[in-house]
Protein 1
Amino acid sequence: MTALVPPELVFACGAEPFDVNNVIPESKRYPKSKLCAWTAIWSEMLVNKEIEIDSLIVVAGGDCHNALVDGQKVQRSGIPTHFFFYPFDGNPEYLESQLESLSGFLGGVRYPGKFREISKLKKLGKKIDEKRCNGRISPADAFRILISFSDLCGDLNKLETAISSVREQKIELNNRIALIGVPPIYSDIHEVAQELGLQVVFDELPFEFIRHSGNDIHSTARDYCGYTFARPLDFRFGFLKKELEKRKVDGVIHYTQFACHHMLEDEILRDELDCPVLTIQGDMPGKTPEQVKLRLEAFGEMIGRQP
Amino acid sequence: MIGLDVGSTTAKAVRIVNGEITYEITGTHNWKDLIKGVDKEEIISTGYFRKSVPHKANVTEITAAIYGVRHCYPDADVIVDIGGQDTKVIDVTKNNFTINDKCSAGTGAFLEFVANYFKLELEELGTLHLKAKAIPEINNTCGVFAVSEMISQLVAGYSKEEVIAGMHYAFARRISFMVPEAETLVLIGGTVKNKGMVSALREIIRGKIMIPDEPQVINALGALKYYNQDIE
Ligand code: SF4
């Protein structure tokens, strides 16, 4: 899968989901033809059979046009590929028909109990999110768990074990930060931010991963209609504002990716939010580069000066 | 105490002695000359190399710029710091900043391309600009493409002075995209000494533009001020 596809349906069809983005932040690859490094790297790795999958689900509609094209490159290499579209207007019937056709691609629902099982796991995910908001779990640990919810590690037991082994700590939250936009391509940005005195208490997209669920295709369609990234900006920002207030956020880091259309949202977002915003643009994966560290440090100094 | 700013191309030191500001400037790699006989505990550092030089405390260039500019112009809304390798725009009123360090357009390095092409010293560009009679349109803001566009304008018959002026306008336009609407802007950084570039900026950017007498040492001064307010 190339982005958020309801993993409960994939499991229910007896398949094992794998989010191809998971391998990117640690990747050392420099793709030959690239716009966004995320899609370029997974596409090249899939074509070269460096990631083992049987078939690919590309989230195209309501998400990413780079994925739409890079996904077709993978399809041309012979891997069975399905294109999944979210409705921009949130129409539940449309989403239900998309889920039905995905289910058809995966051979139909065989284990309906998976829906509820995953629902329960997502409740544990919400607990993790809550604890990090209260400084009881480190932002990096929380992020690692939440981001895993896109494919639930392909193994529900494995994820449950990972959740139960998260270490509780006491973290001082002096600069509460929301990290919004697409997930950063840097593998250690939560740690780096924390070292520089910024504690991430909200990860926008990973929060979407734990927020939606359902008991069957019908209810899943109704819930995933609220997936903010696929919807108009007003819908997404309306949701964001409430979340930022609830989490008493002091500043926002807007992560954008080179050659990604989400960059265009920066201006509107700055107009909409009335807290300090730092925009970071990443390109290639790896550790957080020095130029980004400088921005984070200056942002920390800036927030620290606020009355 | 001294404020020490070791940036990508130059190093500056500022001292305040009996209320009077004194400063020294040298090349980045000669920074040691600026602190001969000065104890580490006496140094507040800023700039690219702020963490690799001896210091009691260090602060980012962004915060240093805010404190340094505030000393000269307490009412500044926006600070534009045009350095050798990047340009920073700080919106003091909104507590926001942007840094352009991805491409040379709008940084000192862009003007270095121009100077190199004509085999000139960077300082000469400003004087030559003032002799231009017409200003050719140069649209590219990418440093590399702008140089080829500049060559086409030379072929088209514009003089060296005019093409340099055209490049300053292209540069200023690029900077203006980063600058929010503001009543008062303060320009700092070494590049600001280029009069041609500044006159292009004054024409393109709305709002009152102010330039401190010594725009290059503002961050070193700011580092010092930042520390002083911390202990006050
Ligand atoms: S960062 Fe943007 S372009 Fe890249 S995969 Fe995500 S949505 Fe697509």
Protein 2
Amino acid sequence: MTASDQIGSVTPVRRRPYGLLLVATPVLLVAWLVIWPIISAVIQTVWTTTPQGQGAVSLDTYSFFFSDGYSLSNLSMTLWTTGVCAVLLLVVCLPIALYLRFSNTRVAVYVQGLAIFPMFVPSIILSFAFIRVLGPNGTVDLLLNSVGLPHIRSPYLTPWGPVIGLVWDNIPLTVLILLSGLGSVSNQAVEAARDVGAGTLALLWHIILPRISNSILVAISFAVLGIFSAFTLPYILGPAAPEMMGPFMQRTFRELLEPKTAITQAVVTFGFCIVFGLFYVRSVAKNRAA
Amino acid sequence: MSVLKIKDVSKIFPNGTTAVDSFSLDVADGELVCLLGPSGSGKSTLLRMVGGFETPTSGLMTIDGEDITNVPPEKRPTGMVFQSHALWTHMNVFKNLAFGLKLRKVAAPEIKRRVEGVLELVGLGGYGTRAVTQLSGGQQQRVALARSLVLEPKILLLDEPFASLDQHLRERLREEVRDIQQRLKITTLFVTHGQDEALSMADRIVVMRDGKTEQIDRPDVVYREPQTPFVAGFIGTMNLIEGVVSNGVFSKAGYSTPLPVSDGPAILAVRPEALDLTASTTGQGKVHRVTDYGTHGLVDLELKDGTRVKAMVSHPDLFQPGQGVSLAPRAIAAYRDGKVIHRTSAVAPAPHPALVDA
Ligand SMILES: Nc1ncnc2c1ncn2[C@@H]1O[C@H](COP(=O)(O)OP(=O)(O)OP(=O)(O)O)[C@@H](O)[C@H]1O
Ligand SMILES: [Mg+2]
């Protein structure tokens, strides 16, 4: 055996443990703080004690959740809010991102600042600002009154309350993700498209959107994941019933003192989020492969 | 059958840079004109204005008599080939070429026929289903060229399309583009800052400097009769010696030669290949370095004040560093105030410009 053979055979074996050590800490943390709570939550919800004092597996809490009209209407309300927010976010953020990417005026700098601003505002402050502006006897109401117009029907405490708040709250992240996607569309590619005769719409549809479809998917998955389990905004701005899953869980746990039911609601929420999460992972994987 | 006219076009960017300054040019039908100039001379800006990507601050541009000054790029009969990164990576080669035809609502069989024809023309027959990311740099630029050609533009615009390629590939593609251009007789404006590229391809060369025209002429004329010292120094190698004329004699640091112009300062211009050297002990200059290129030699010599002069010789072995030589130019030109004031009528037989070491 020559010296080089030895080096060749020894090094990888020696290196492997170090690499594993490096990832061990985060992996253990994730296992402890994320994976274990999930497993324990699932076990708690399916493990019951029979009157005879024996343990048994039972899906009772889930069948209750999926047969209870109130739980279901909360779930569908959450899905509705998430869907509407996702659509609105795209409709609002795509034009902003396009403007920021393709405008080179000074105004763009301020628009960018405005678009990112909500990131620095805690949801709780946002909620109260919302109430002061759009709530009953808020600024808008007062302004309308002062010129003799009737009261608005305030979105406060309707399903649209959380929608407006959540969209506002999620604009910065969505804009930033879309903007980074648009960064990969080169100026020359855009100019070449115009050169062969593409107008604004054709340019958007055939050249720009296909190039940022991945970013759109990522942005939407991020927004959806956050919105689906949002708490503060729906809690303060939303209607009392039906309510979104976040406040619903909290109320079940704190006010109704039914931890098992609350955990079941959490597991169901988690199930939905994992589906969106898979979308995200898939698009990242596709991006990597390309 | 297309003629491009550019009249007094200027471009002043919002930051105050005057990139193009009252530029005028007529490009005849089927002609290939090269815009040549140092970096920042406004070549790209001018080309982008013709393509519609920049709006002129003032001036007029017409194609076949039709005013296009304010027509957006998507409505102009021009086709532009960019330096790089202009292919749409989410489409394969065929789709890249077909996109413009689809926008024009050409029928599918016709699209297929035309795309395949053009791919054949640029030497990429059968590459239609390739992803553009799986092409080499040279192939990508051919696709970019094909994408413009397939729409049969009236004016073809190329902005340093080969700048990112290596020397060999650049030379080959340059010839191919010239062939295709002549076959299709397509009116072409070509931007480059490589003088060999301009000299070997162009019907006419526009030498630009600071957004203005220095000279517009055939390549051989630009090479043999540069109108300004800038052009003289920019195209090929030229010895530019600054000196003084008095009583019809130009002199500089012990070197003098008859120059029939009025008294005053002047710049004497001599091509290395038009400068004969003879060994002499009372020499006007001293050999500094001799380089043997096999086919010829290049002698670097110094005048008494250290001014460097290059001369091309057929027998480099006759000269050694440190040796005294005297200079005998066969053809000279003289410039004063940026204009030519004298040129010897006898034009020295020059080798093909492209062969001259830059
Ligand atoms: N968008 C712009 N805004 C401001 N100034 C610009 C802009 N584009 C170009 N310029 C300036 O205009 C001048 C001409 O630029 P241009 O790109 O036309 O030069 P060029 O001849 O193509 O140079 P190169 O050979 O380096 O490509 C330069 O001084 C450049 O800095
Ligand atoms: Mg340029």
